[in-house]
């Protein structure tokens, strides 16, 4: 694993990852600018750090590449963002495949939610409370404010704090010892200051997050309930609460303050948990282990629910969970049978259930083209669903239908051209069709969107070298290369 770009997360995952990343004594920091007369990072600087951090996170085995959970988090997240203070950030919510209860915000509006948090929430308002808290960290610019306090020590603070996170993430005593050694190695004061600031930021995030919950019509008591159980470390929270508590220091006073705010509203809140919340909770339970033993454990839980004669939503969710288990285990017929039962028990036309039904049917079909047509129709009926667009593209790719992929990409509206995945799909099919300049250009555009202008420039030069595109394509390549080189000049450190 190459060194992570500096991640100045307000709610960092200090000791929560059980990974064993390769340690490094140096962090490659992006070039940071600041507006005149201010020691604070600009929103553009924050976005730049966030994009470069995400480039590294996407390569982590803990980044969950699941379009279903990702789509659900984006829907829920933007319902909350719509109720948040006005912000210059474009938010991205993404899942991390980790059983611990945690969430964190990166600079520029990137917010991670651990699958353990989704599984542990007892209702949707509890999950919304955690996400609203992270959104508040971003809207209040806690990262920029913390770095302003560090003044001339920005790079050292970012680099040293990240090294400590990586060391703590290595797991076991050796990891903890390494983290302690780094903290004692000249940057202890900076890290101590960061932690002190983080505690004051947590109080502000509580207040703003509470307001977001109320405006988005969620029960603000959900935030209090979730935090209260974490503080008490009761039930299933006992084993997994330490990660969140280490990153988000809770106190009785903070929880009491939230309870007082809820009482002052003097209005009842009726819980309206979405059906999709329970579906994605079941999906997260299955996916987060990444092992057959973990799937077997989830299967037993779903079967236990059904053995108690569950009906309606409970039964539909259990059958859906079993379908996900069987699909991952390679039992296409059983996965399809459970998917059918889930749709029947739900008594509703849910897009996640319909997608699962078609995908399990696609997996077992000898002639896949009729099912592909139904998947295309479902995607067309839900034109803003990134999940369905990606599902259809992946199925087309499996069938070697690259011309159809290029045609679909141009006509669809779910995956925009400011999404790196758009160009990843474009590059993959262009390469398969032997259109090498177009493939290199698309790969360069993908890197550019991820903030890696050095790799982008390299890909554009490769497109020029191959030069097998038409006049229009090659003119675009020339313009793209000029833009990449301009960015590299701006990023070059000044001495």
From TrEMBL:
GO terms for biological process: proteolysis involved in protein catabolic process. Its cofactor is Zn(2+). One of its GO terms (cellular component) is membrane. The keyword Metal-binding applies. One of its GO terms (molecular function) is metal ion binding. InterPro entries: Mito/Outer_Membr_Metalloprot, Peptidase_M48, TPR-like_helical_dom_sf. It holds the Pfam family Peptidase_M48. Gene3D superfamilies: Metalloproteases ('zincins'), catalytic domain, Tetratricopeptide repeat domain. Residues 72-261 form the Peptidase M48 domain. It comes from the Bacteria. Keywords: Hydrolase, Metal-binding, Metalloprotease, Protease, Signal, Zinc. SUPFAM superfamilies: TPR-like (SSF48452). Residues 1-21 form the signal peptide. PANTHER family: METALLOENDOPEPTIDASE OMA1, METALLOENDOPEPTIDASE OMA1, MITOCHONDRIAL. This is Exported protein. It comes from Mesosutterella multiformis.
């Amino acid at each position: 694993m190459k060194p992570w770009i500096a991640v100045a997360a307000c709610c960092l995952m200090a000791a929560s990852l059980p990974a064993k990343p390769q340690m490094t004594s140096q962090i490659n920091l992006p070039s940071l600018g600041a507006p005149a007369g201010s020691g604070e990072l600009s929103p553009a600087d924050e976005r730049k750090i966030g994009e470069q951090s995400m480039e590294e996170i996407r390569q982590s085995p803990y980044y969950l590449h699941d379009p279903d959970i990702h789509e659900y988090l984006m829907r829920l997240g933007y319902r909350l963002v719509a109720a948040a203070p006005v912000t210059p950030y474009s938010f991205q919510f993404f899942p991390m495949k980790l059983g611990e209860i945690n969430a964190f915000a990166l600079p520029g509006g990137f917010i991670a939610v651990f699958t353990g948090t989704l599984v542990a929430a007892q209702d949707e308002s509890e999950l919304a409370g955690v996400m609203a808290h992270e959104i508040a960290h971003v809207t209040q610019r806690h990262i920029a404010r913390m770095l302003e306090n560090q003044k001339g020590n920005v790079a050292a603070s970012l680099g040293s704090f990240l090294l400590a996170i990586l060391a703590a993430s290595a797991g076991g005593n050796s990891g903890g010892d390494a983290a302690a050694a780094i903290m004692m190695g000249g940057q202890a004061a900076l890290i101590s200051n960061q932690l002190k600031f983080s505690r004051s930021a947590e109080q502000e995030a509580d207040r703003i997050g509470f307001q977001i919950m109320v405006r988005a019509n969620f029960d603000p008591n959900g935030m209090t309930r979730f935090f209260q159980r974490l503080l008490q470390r009761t039930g299933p929270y006992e084993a997994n609460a330490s990660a969140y508590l280490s990153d988000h220091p809770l106190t009785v006073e903070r929880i009491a303050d939230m309870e007082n705010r809820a009482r002052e509203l003097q209005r009842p809140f009726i819980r309206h948990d979405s059906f999709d919340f329970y579906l994605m909770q079941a999906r997260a339970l299955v996916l987060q282990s990444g092992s057959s033993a973990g799937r077997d454990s989830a299967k037993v839980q779903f079967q236990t629910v059904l053995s108690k004669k569950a009906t309606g939503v409970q039964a539909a969710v259990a059958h859906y969970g079993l379908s996900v288990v069987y699909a991952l285990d390679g039992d296409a017929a059983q996965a399809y049978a459970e998917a059918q039962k889930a749709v029947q028990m739900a008594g509703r036309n849910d897009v996640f259930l319909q997608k699962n039904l078609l995908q399990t049917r696609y997996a077992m079909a000898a002639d896949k083209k009729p099912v592909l047509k139904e998947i295309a129709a479902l995607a067309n009926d839900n034109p803003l669903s990134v999940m369905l667009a990606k599902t259809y593209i992946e199925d087309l790719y499996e069938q070697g239908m690259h011309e159809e992929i290029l045609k679909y990409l141009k006509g669809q509206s779910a995956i925009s051209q400011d999404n790196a995945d758009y160009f990843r799909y474009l590059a993959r099919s262009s390469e398969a069709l032997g259109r090498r300049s177009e493939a290199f250009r698309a790969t360069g555009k993908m890197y550019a969107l991820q903030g890696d202008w050095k790799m982008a420039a390299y890909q554009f030069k490769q497109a020029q070298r191959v030069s097998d595109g038409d006049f229009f394509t090659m003119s675009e390549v020339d313009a793209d290369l000029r833009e990449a080189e301009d960015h590299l000049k701006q990023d070059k450190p000044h001495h």
